[in-house]
Design a protein that fits this description.
Length: about 290
């Protein structure tokens, strides 16, 4: 093989690598221009007669493409376009096709979404600079709702579970009875309201229970039909039906009523800030509770 032939082979290999690198770079420049709203940069990454295709829309010409992108992505929106796994196929000197996965996140009032799909870009390279001559976007998944809204929904569900756990800790503490556990259920400024009035502060609340639970009987409180209403971050209202039984040597009580608990989540633990107890029935099961 002659020196001339070697040089030609090396030159071709070099050209392929330079075209490949420039083609890949063109996609990254496109993403940067879109996310920074640099419309001048976006225009430069497309050829003058470029074509963009996406479902239900075909844009022809650099000017039309930039104007359409400006309308789709207002300045106040936050976006991120992540080019993943770009695969470059060299076609001929200065020509390449790039197949890539695009993951995007859009954040803005009325425009929240995350999604992903495929880009197929035809790239023309001149003097080491790649421009897109044709871009085809094929969506795979589009999920309306921003990351922020998903986070809010997640926080509400996690708060609800922690709130339920707080009501169960309360029932367990009362049934044991375990006054240290019961103390850990209420906030320091908790308010308890029953038919006998209100008590404010954890110490007064505990004093009420220490007197109310002094009778040595076996107790069971069953919480059912719990309804949870979010009040704000880390704060919910839990409404429950409760059924209770008292069993002793001379005691056979069955009753039911309603709990309304405002519960605050602190460091991933639920605490009762306000508890309202309404007892509807308290009757000796040996006699019954039917009205005469």
């Amino acid at each position: 093989m002659s020196e001339s032939t070697d040089l030609q082979a090396i030159t071709l290999r070099l050209e392929r690598l330079e075209t490949t690198e420039a083609a890949r770079s063109a996609l990254f420049t496109y993403a940067q221009a879109v996310d920074t709203r640099d419309w001048s940069m976006l225009g430069e990454v497309f050829s003058e007669d470029a074509v963009v295709e996406m479902p239900g829309l075909v844009l022809t010409g650099r000017t039309a493409i930039v104007e359409a992108m400006q309308g789709m992505l207002p300045t106040e929106f936050l976006t991120r376009h992540l080019i993943v796994n770009p695969q470059v196929t060299w076609k001929s000197p200065g020509r390449a096709t790039v197949h890539a996965t695009i993951y995007y996140a859009h954040e803005g009032t009325g425009f929240e979404a995350t999604g992903w799909g495929d880009y197929t870009d035809e790239i023309s390279v001149t003097d080491g600079i790649g421009v897109i001559t044709r871009k085809v976007f094929t969506p795979a998944q589009h999920l309306p709702g921003s990351v922020a809204s998903l986070t809010t929904r997640l926080e509400q569900l996690e708060t609800a579970e922690l709130a339920r756990a707080a009501t169960w800790r309360y029932a367990n503490a009362v049934d044991t009875p375990d006054f240290e556990l019961l103390r850990s259920v209420f906030t320091e400024d908790a308010v308890l309201t029953t038919s006998k009035g209100s008590r404010t502060g954890r110490d007064q609340v505990l004093d009420y229970y220490e007197k109310a639970l002094v009778t040595p009987v076996k107790r069971k409180h069953f919480l059912v039909n719990q309804s949870i209403t979010p009040l704000g971050p880390g704060l919910v209202l839990v409404e429950s039906y409760f059924i209770y039984t008292f069993a002793g040597d001379n005691t056979s009580i069955l009753g039911w009523g309603n709990y309304v608990d405002r519960i605050k989540i602190i460091d991933s633990v639920g605490y009762i800030q306000d508890k309202r107890i309404t007892a509807e029935i308290h009757a000796d099961s040996r006699v019954g509770w039917a009205k005469p």
